[in-house]
Specification:
Order of helices and strands: HH
Helix content: over 70%
Radius of gyration: 45 Å
Number of helices: 2
Structural class: mainly alpha
Largest sheet: none
Length: 105
């Protein structure tokens, strides 16, 4: 009753308390939104980094495939050269044996 005589309005106090609670909630939501935006930005940067890494790896794979093809062509060329030299050396060896045979006769 003493409060009523002094002109304290409980409805105004309740309304002010509700407004303060809503305001605190809005502020906490703003802080949470800012935090989520920071996380989103960090994730976006991580995704960009991963995409760059993937792109570099794909480029490396392409280079390795080209190098593998080149190595295969080079190896085939070497094998052909070796085969030709083996045939040539076999012919020279046979000629040498025949020549040695006729020289000994």
């Amino acid at each position: 009753m003493a409060l009523a005589r002094e002109g304290v309005n409980f409805e105004n106090i309740k309304r002010d308390a509700k407004i303060e609670a809503v305001l605190n909630h809005v502020i906490s939501q703003d802080v949470e939104i800012a935090h989520l935006k920071d996380e989103q930005f960090e994730m976006s940067n991580e995704i960009k980094g991963h995409k760059e890494t993937i792109s570099k790896l794909e480029d490396d794979i392409q280079l390795l495939k080209k190098e593998k093809r080149w190595n295969m062509l080079w190896r085939n060329s070497l094998e052909e050269d070796i085969a030709k030299r083996q045939v040539f050396l076999a012919i020279v060896f046979l000629i040498n044996i025949i020549f040695t045979y006729f020289m000994s006769q």
